[in-house]
């Protein structure tokens, strides 16, 4: 059975590092090695914004929950906040001492959390651009970070093979999930903040129960290194892509594949998912963006 159908495919003029979708599924943001952030309109396939300011490669860029702002992070050690309406930079967040690997808004859009090669996790106030807290605990580079839905918890992943769970108010680490396998590349919380997925260099996706701290599922069908993996909002499904060119949709309960969306000759660079889980975008090394639409509801 097919759950997602390819709606369109189009080329970008430059090779990008990451791709993310706006909450309403109408725009794409791309981060690039040429220090720029590009915003594309999906309908017209044209650039509608190009943001300049970073002095080195941009590692990641993501929309705010209301779709009006973008946060970007860079090898230049800074995080920048951009206003989509005025097309101007709003804030520069300075504090990390090494490349910033990821930055993300809280669900209310008032705060940003960031991870860095300097091993720290930092919390920022969007309105004044000031650092609120520096969370220290990882012993190696922090590769990814995310707020919980209620904004009270942050999860982070490190190259020391740990996923750390933090209480925002106190700044205290409340749990550590230890993976004895290969180096963790990234993490993501489920839409209900009950589970966390991690993906690692051993080509495996792990699903963890946050309450118990236990690993409950393992998806191990990828034959190549996993580049990105995300929960599909509102469902018991995960979308993943690999440098072997495969884009896959997984059933968490059975640990089996729902659908192989594409088998591509070029390796995947990233995926983005709309807030309602009905739209997926994928980006490949040949500079191709593919847009997928949900055609069959996934039963939980």
What would your notes on this structure say?
It holds the Pfam family WD40. WD repeats lie at residues 51-92, 93-134, 135-176, 177-218, 219-260, 261-294. This is WD-40 repeat-containing protein. Keywords: Repeat, WD repeat. The structure is a single chain. The protein is globular, with a radius of gyration of 18 Å. It contains no helices and 28 strands. The chain has one domain: YVTN repeat-like/Quinoprotein amine dehydrogenase (Methylamine Dehydrogenase, Chain H, 7 Propeller), CATH 2.130.10.10. The chain is mainly beta and 300 residues long. The strands form seven sheets. Strands 1-28-27-26 form a four-stranded antiparallel sheet, with no helix packed on it. 0% of the residues lie in helices and 57% in strands. The chain has strands spanning 4-11, 16-21, 27-32, 36-41, 47-52, 58-63, 69-74, 78-83, 88-94, 100-105, 111-116, 121-125, 131-135, 142-147, 153-158, 162-167, 173-178, 184-189, 195-200, 205-209, 214-219, 226-231, 237-242, 246-251, 256-263, 268-273, 279-284, 288-294. The mean pLDDT is 91.
């Amino acid at each position: 059975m097919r759950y997602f159908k390819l709606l369109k495919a189009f080329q970008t003029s430059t090779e990008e590092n990451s791709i993310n979708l706006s909450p309403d599924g109408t725009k794409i943001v791309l981060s690039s090695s040429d220090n720029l952030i590009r915003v594309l309109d999906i309908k017209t396939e044209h650039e509608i914004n190009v943001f300049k300011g970073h002095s080195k490669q941009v590692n990641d860029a993501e929309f705010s929950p209301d779709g009006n702002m973008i946060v970007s992070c860079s090898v230049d050690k800074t995080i920048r906040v951009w206003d989509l309406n005025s097309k101007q930079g709003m804030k520069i967040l300075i504090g990390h001492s090494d490349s910033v690997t990821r930055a993300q808004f809280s669900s209310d859009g008032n705060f940003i959390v960031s991870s860095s090669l300097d091993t720290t996790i930092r919390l920022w106030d969007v309105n004044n651009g000031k650092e609120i807290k520096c969370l220290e605990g990882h012993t190696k580079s922090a590769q990814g970070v995310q707020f919980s839905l209620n904004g009270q918890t942050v999860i982070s992943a490190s190259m020391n093979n740990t996923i750390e769970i933090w209480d925002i108010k106190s700044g205290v680490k409340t749990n550590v999930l230890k993976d004895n396998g290969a180096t963790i590349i990234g993490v993501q919380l489920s839409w209900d903040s009950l589970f966390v997925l991690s993906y690692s260099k051993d080509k495996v996706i792990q699903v963890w129960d946050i309450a118990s701290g236990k690993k409950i599922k393992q998806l191990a069908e990828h034959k190549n290194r996993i580049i990105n993996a995300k929960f599909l909002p509102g469902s018991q499904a995960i979308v993943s892509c690999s440098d072997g060119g495969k884009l896959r949709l997984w059933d968490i309960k059975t640990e089996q594949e729902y659908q192989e969306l594409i088998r591509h000759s070029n390796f995947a660079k990233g995926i983005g998912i709309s807030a309602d889980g009905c739209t997926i975008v994928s980006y490949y090394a040949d500079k191709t963006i593919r847009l997928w639409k949900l055609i069959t509801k996934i039963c939980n």
